[in-house]
């Protein structure tokens, strides 16, 4: 095995722990009270977590800051880039409180919602959100308590709504409110979100997940505030966003299918088909897409999932999602390590199914009419034909690697980059094994580094081949115009 004589720069790692995932689909896990210690976080990383999510709906800045430090210390120790996602809470629409505890409901019962701060009773309750009243019209439905209570508006004004109960038997303090089919005049970024965003960016997170996206303007507002300091992931949890799906995907760096919230405002039977549509459209655009919410939810309190949950995870993998996500399973559950292990096992099993490769090969998006897309599409085909061990990309911004991942090759994508922030962000992307390295002076040096990294990290054995894409003049962003086959171990 030959190596180059270059010395890494000060910002590039001098060692790496050879951690290679034996799957292409990535695993996102949420940190919380059940996964807050350095020992547990290390175990989750070694078990299979590629991206760690910080849920800003819970926990203090001190909590999140401590977890970021643990992750960055682990990254420095192993030399392996680790991605951190800050998931912003977004607006939380809730009713107020009742004077004497929960009230009983019956179909046809009248219930007024208003802006009064007085505790509620069986005839009225406060709803401190004038923006909801501004958007209501008669015959609009309101869903409370995650859809357990449905009210229909029969009359409304700027400070109240008169409703009748359509379904539901009980209502208690501070239950959430959803307004299906109505675009609310609300920014997805509350005062709390803006404060959390500043903290997260200063802490150095790699991805920011934006909640309550309704319109392309919501994404544009967040992009302005982020200012390129992190990649932006739009959470699709409001049905209103689907009307602008193409534009939202175009403005975003990545997409999350937040099925739990979608399932509140949409009929349950609509969510699976919508999930497939979002994944398909994101893949076509070359944007990483996560399928999230309730994937292995029974493992919050049980050491094994239901068969239906295992099938649900498998479906997301068959759809070609870049990543699948764990929420309460790892944040507050009793079996966080087992949940990650199960997610890892399911994804590996699906990817070894011949049907999986048949599906992936049948769904390649048409390449754009550019040299870069033509070379990338050819790289996948060549890698398949010669049974290469990996496809290699060299990138600064990540665009070359994203293009390769869009092809959904059967081989891992070895990404070499001198930008640590790019290596971290690409951990979310299908099939990518990112290596942070020093700058390469020329194409020959890059080839030597690629063969060395592929061997050291277990992606290729001596004598196997790599398919390498690059651009000449070397180092010019977006100028992929060369395809080369290299032997691992060859001069």
UniProtKB/TrEMBL annotation:
Swiss-Prot/TrEMBL cofactor(s): K(+); Mg(2+)
Domain Pyruvate kinase C-terminal residue range list: 373-485
Cited InterPro entries: Pyr_Knase, Pyrv/PenolPyrv_kinase-like_dom, Pyrv_kinase-like_dom_sf, Pyrv_Knase-like_insert_dom_sf, Pyrv_Knase_AS, Pyrv_Knase_brl, Pyrv_Knase_C, Pyrv_Knase_C_sf
Annotated catalysed reactions: pyruvate + ATP = phosphoenolpyruvate + ADP + H(+)
Broad enzyme group: transferase
Database matches in Pfam families: PK, PK_C
First and last residue of the signal peptide: none
Pathway noted in the entry: Carbohydrate degradation; glycolysis; pyruvate from D-glyceraldehyde 3-phosphate: step 5/5
Domain Pyruvate kinase barrel: 23-340
Keyword annotations: ATP-binding, Glycolysis, Kinase, Magnesium, Metal-binding, Nucleotide-binding, Pyruvate, Transferase
Keyword Nucleotidyltransferase: no
Transmembrane segments: none
EC number in record: 2.7.1.40
Any one GO MF annotation of this record: kinase activity
Protein family according to the UniProt entry: Belongs to the pyruvate kinase family.
Official protein name in the record: Pyruvate kinase
């Amino acid at each position: 095995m030959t190596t180059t004589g270059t010395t890494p720069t000060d910002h590039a790692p001098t060692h790496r722990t050879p951690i290679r995932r034996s799957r292409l689909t990535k695993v996102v896990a949420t940190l919380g009270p059940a996964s807050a210690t350095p020992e547990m976080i290390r175990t989750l990383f070694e078990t299979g977590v590629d991206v760690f999510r910080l849920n800003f709906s819970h926990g203090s800045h001190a909590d999140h800051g401590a977890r970021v430090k643990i992750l960055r210390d682990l990254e420095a120790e192993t030399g392996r880039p680790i991605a951190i996602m800050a998931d912003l809470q977004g607006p939380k629409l809730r009713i107020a409180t009742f004077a004497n505890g929960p009230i009983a409901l019956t179909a046809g019962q009248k219930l007024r919602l208003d802006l009064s701060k007085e505790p509620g009773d069986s005839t009225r309750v406060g709803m401190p959100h004038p923006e909801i009243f501004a958007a209501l019209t008669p015959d609009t439905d309101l869903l409370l308590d995650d859809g357990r209570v449905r009210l229909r508006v029969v009359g409304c004004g700027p400070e109240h709504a008169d409703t009748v109960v359509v379904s539901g038997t009980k209502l208690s303090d501070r239950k959430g409110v959803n307004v299906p089919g109505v675009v609310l005049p609300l920014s997805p970024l509350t005062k709390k979100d803006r404060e959390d965003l500043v903290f997260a960016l200063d802490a150095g997170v790699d991805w920011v997940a934006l909640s309550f996206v309704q319109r392309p303007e919501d994404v544009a507002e967040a992009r302005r505030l982020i200012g390129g300091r992190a990649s932006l992931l739009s959470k699709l949890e409001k049905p209103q966003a689907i009307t602008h799906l193409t534009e939202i995907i175009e403005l975003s760096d990545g997409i999350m299918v937040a099925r739990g919230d979608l399932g509140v405002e949409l009929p349950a039977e609509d969510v699976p088909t919508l999930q497939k549509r979002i994944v398909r459209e994101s893949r076509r655009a070359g944007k990483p897409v996560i399928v999230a919410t309730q994937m292995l939810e029974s493992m919050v309190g049980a050491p094994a999932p239901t068969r239906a949950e295992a099938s649900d995870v498998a479906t997301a993998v068959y759809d070609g999602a870049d990543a699948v996500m764990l929420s309460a399973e790892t944040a507050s559950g009793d079996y966080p390590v087992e949940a990650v292990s199960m997610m890892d096992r399911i994804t590996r099993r699906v990817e070894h199914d011949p049907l999986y490769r048949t599906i992936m090969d049948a769904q390649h998006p048409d390449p754009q009419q550019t040299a870069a897309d033509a070379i990338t599409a050819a790289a996948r085909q060549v890698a398949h034909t010669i049974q290469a061990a990996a496809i290699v990309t060299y990138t600064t911004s990540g665009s070359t690697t994203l293009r390769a991942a869009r092809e959904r090759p059967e081989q891992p994508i070895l990404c070499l980059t001198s930008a640590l922030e790019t290596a971290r962000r690409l951990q979310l992307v299908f099939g990518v094994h990112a290596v942070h390295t020093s700058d390469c002076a020329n194409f020959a040096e890059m080839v030597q580094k690629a063969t060395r990294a592929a061997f050291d990290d277990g992606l290729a054995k001596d004598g196997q081949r790599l398919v390498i894409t690059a651009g000449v003049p070397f180092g010019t962003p977006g100028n992929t115009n060369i395809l080369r086959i290299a032997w691992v171990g060859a001069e």
